[in-house]
Design brief:
six-stranded antiparallel beta barrel; globular; four-stranded parallel beta sheet; 285 residues; alpha+beta; 36% helix; 12 strands
């Protein structure tokens, strides 16, 4: 009975926070994403999440200030071996996004980050990694459903959330490789700095995530339907033809889901088994 009460307390506390969330959308979702836009009015009406649309030019103007405030994560990042000018540019992008978060009083933010490549010659990978470690949910490529998924899973569990793409699926072994160029700075035990995979620009993370139990989760933009699976992180990979952080997972649920009914591109991975907690949350949300 005590465990049941604790579970319900977590569920309703998370529900209350999420129903009052305010998230920012800097630019629109990347053109190649699937099911990644959300109507702001509908979101507010259905689940209480307020979406604030912010023009990319405001972000560019903030980046041009070339300012940021150091914290434990910027300092840790600076310890990585990489071109110093590129590291500084990445932190200036972080500072710009952090000021936008503070200005609009956001609980989370998503950015059309590929639009940084041409004018800035940099990426948002470091900015998102630091913001997520600070407790500000931050997703790539303007993917609002991914951001909402991060918020739900993060508020339920207190765990940092890794947004990643399915990159290789083995139906025979029920295994899947996920990869992306950023992950929260408080989620890995060691890291190296590299360029962003698709562009060869900027700075991105290859982080090593501890092997063991994991949860994979995704909800749609209005948090009406969802996918969740427990599983095991079997291996951290180092392949040249994938985004920088790469993990091989064995899932409890069938990986056929990703081939036939996947809820968009990106999915969210956290350490630990929280499947029952997610199911309980959706009984009440």
């Amino acid at each position: 009975m005590a465990n049941r009460i604790l579970t319900l307390a977590k569920v309703f506390a998370a529900k209350k926070r999420i129903n009052n969330f305010r998230i920012g959308r800097v630019g629109v979702p990347s053109d190649w994403l699937i099911s990644s836009d959300v109507d702001a009015n509908e979101s507010k009406e259905v689940n209480g999440i307020e979406i604030v649309d912010i023009d990319m030019q405001e972000f560019f103007d903030e980046i041009a200030k070339k300012e940021y405030v150091d914290n434990e994560f910027t300092i840790k990042f600076k310890e990585g071996e990489f071109d110093e000018a590129e590291k500084e540019k990445a932190l200036q992008i972080y500072g710009a996004l952090r000021r936008i978060v503070d200005k609009y009083q956001l609980n989370g933010v998503t950015v059309r980050c590929f639009d940084l490549l041409e004018p800035v010659k940099g990426t948002g990978c470091v900015a998102l990694a630091i913001l997520n470690a600070e407790g500000i949910y931050a997703s790539c490529e303007g993917d609002t459903p991914a951001l909402i998924s991060m918020a739900i899973l993060g508020e339920l569990t207190g765990e940092p959330c890794f947004q990643a793409n399915p990159s290789k699926i083995s139906t025979d072994a029920n295994e899947i490789i996920f990869a992306h160029c950023t992950l929260p700075m408080n989620m890995f035990d060691k890291f190296e700095l590299m360029t962003h995979f698709e562009s060869g620009l900027g700075v991105a993370f290859r982080g090593h995530i501890e092997e063991g139990p994991i949860t994979v989760f995704k909800t749609d933009g209005l948090a009406q339907k969802y996918f969740v699976s427990g599983g095991t992180l079997l291996e951290n990979l180092n392949r040249f033809n994938l985004c920088r952080t790469q993990v091989r997972l064995k899932l409890d649920e069938s990986v056929q889901y990703f081939l036939t009914e996947s809820i968009g591109n990106h999915h969210i991975i956290i350490k630990g088994d929280y499947v029952d907690l997610v199911h309980e949350f959706y009984k009440w949300f």
